[in-house]
Design a protein that fits this description.
single chain
């Protein structure tokens, strides 16, 4: 399965894995030294609960950093649904290397699979509506790109990756700029200077009056902050397709369907990446 993603992953994977292995191994794995340095072992990774797989490349990089000759054969791809007690991959590698890489490799696989699984539940909840669930910048420090990739694996979309690739004008920006129209005008100048680096300009509104002002000022992407369902429906009616409307604020799995049915285009959910419980996966040596 091919997952379309906005930035090259290889440099990010290398950076993530370097940090993880440096943190865990330090001056060397004392316990793994119990094992004969020449011994090879076989192992499998098994899912203990259903979900969506994500993070294979991070897992592979952890293992192959310590044993470049390791053989890892996957039986599921990133973005695929997996079942409880399913074998995900078979590994043959140096025993010491595999033991030393195990925790870091599984940490990546469990976290990213958890994010993908959660994104899949939210995406499924609004299936057949026009809306798309998207992530936010509420990610674990140092793992934003990895988590946003995981959201894509789960069927969600990505909001801006960071502060450098888009403009999101919020309440304090509007106040400091002197109003919605001046803020949008300044944003357009900045976006023109940034060129292709700036993917979009979005402005947050907190009322229907502010929505009308933003539309009159030519806004093409508007964030509806904590609107009620009735107000969202009215916003969609007034907008009439002129701008991309995004709903935000206190979105849960129980409420997202009703929000999607108001006619908004996107629904941002911080919980996709900040409130996750690792998917239960385990590695077992088989020889």
């Amino acid at each position: 399965m091919t997952i379309d993603f906005a930035v090259p992953l290889a440099p990010e994977i290398a950076r993530n894995v370097t940090a993880a292995l440096d943190e865990d191994l330090g001056a060397g794995d004392l316990t793994a030294s119990l094992i004969d340095a020449s011994r090879s072992s076989r192992a499998t990774v098994i899912s203990r609960e259903p979900g969506v797989l994500c993070g294979r490349d991070w897992f592979d990089e952890c293992v192959r950093r310590l044993d470049p000759q390791a053989r890892i054969i996957w039986q599921a791809a990133d973005g695929e649904r997996i079942a409880a007690n399913q074998t995900l991959c078979d590994i043959e590698a140096n025993a010491r290397a595999l033991l030393s890489a195990e925790r870091s490799a599984l940490n990546f696989l469990q976290l990213l699979s958890a994010v993908a699984s959660k994104a899949r539940r939210y995406a499924d909840a609004i299936d057949s509506t026009r809306a798309q669930v998207v992530d936010t910048r509420k990610t674990l420090p140092g793992l934003r790109i990895a988590q946003k990739y995981a959201v894509r694996c789960g069927g969600g979309g990505n909001h801006r990756l960071a502060l450098w690739d888009a403009i999101l004008i919020k309440e304090n920006h509007i106040h400091a700029a002197g109003g919605i129209a001046p803020a949008l005008a300044a944003a357009r100048r900045i976006a023109e200077q940034a060129g292709e680096r700036c993917r979009f300009i979005q402005i947050e509104v907190e009322s229907l009056d502010e929505l009308d002002t933003a539309l009159a000022a030519g806004a093409t992407m508007i964030l509806l902050d904590n609107f009620s369902l009735d107000t969202m429906r009215e916003a969609a009616r007034r907008n009439a397709g002129r701008a991309v409307l995004e709903a935000s604020g206190n979105v849960t799995l129980e409420t997202i369907r009703a929000i999607a049915e108001t006619g908004v285009d996107r629904i941002s959910v911080g919980a996709l990446s900040k409130d996750v419980k690792a998917l239960d996966l385990s590695m077992r040596f088989v020889d």
